[in-house]
Amino acid sequence: TRLQLVRRCPTPLAAEREWQQQAEDNVVDRLQRAGLLAPDGDVDKILMTVVNNLLITNNIELPRPVRTRVLLTSPLETFSVGNTIVVSRGLIDTLPDESSLAMVLSHELAHIVLGHNLGSKYAFNDRMLFSDEGTYQNLGFKHIPEEEAAADKKAVEFLKSSPYAQKL
Questions:
Q1: 18: exposed, middle or buried (C-beta count within 10 Å: 0-12, 13-18, 19+)?
Q2: Would you place residue 122 in the very low, low, confident or very high pLDDT band (cuts 50, 70, 90)?
């Protein structure tokens, strides 16, 4: 019947969110298979605590939850894939305190809130066909300068309203 068909067909917004989630999951899975992401652990819990502090104190509600992951690389780098924030072990090891970590995470959270996601192109599995060695280079997590500037501005707003404001 028509009612059953309506229930099975997601709304355009729900379909878009499912597509974005599929792209995000594909990238995270590919990074895991290539051995570039650390297994979930205590560091992820610390990262999520800081992200949750930023979300709660800024009254940020997103349609999908934010996740954090640790990239097993030495260079100082961070990026977001959909609603997953990825921070390199090298960067984590150089940050002196939780407030510094909040500054890094607030920038990536700003990209998520502003909708600067990688797009849905990685929802197609054939986009993930490359060697493990070439995984990071093939994914290319770069934002345009305008998105970086907007994320910087939004991150400062988040930090001013956060528990880390006095330590910046």
A1: middle
A2: low
Q: What is the pLDDT of residues 28-41, one digit of tens each?
A: 888 888 888 999 89
Token couple for 150: 């907007």
Question: DSSP labels for 35-51?
Answer: T-BPPS-HHHHHHHHHH
Of 118, 120, 110, 95, the closest CA to residue 55 belongs to 110
Tell me how far the alpha carbon of residue 106 is from its chain's centroid.
11
Render pLDDT for 124-142 as a digit per residue (tens, 0 to 9). Answer: 454 444 444 544 554 556 7
Q: Would you state the torsion angle of the CA atoms of residues 139, 141, 144, 145, taken in this order, to the nearest 10 degrees?
A: -150
Neighbouring C-beta atoms of residue 154, cutoff 10 Å: 20
Rounded-to-integer distance, Cα 95 and Cα 90, Å: 9
pTM, two decimals, is: 0.78
pLDDT at residue number 134: 47
Query: How far, in Å, CA of 153 to CA of 33, rounded?
Result: 35
Write down the pLDDT at residue 138: 44
Alpha carbons 50 and 164: distance in angstroms, whole number: 9
Burial (CB < 10 A; 0-12, 13-18, 19+), residue 27, is: buried
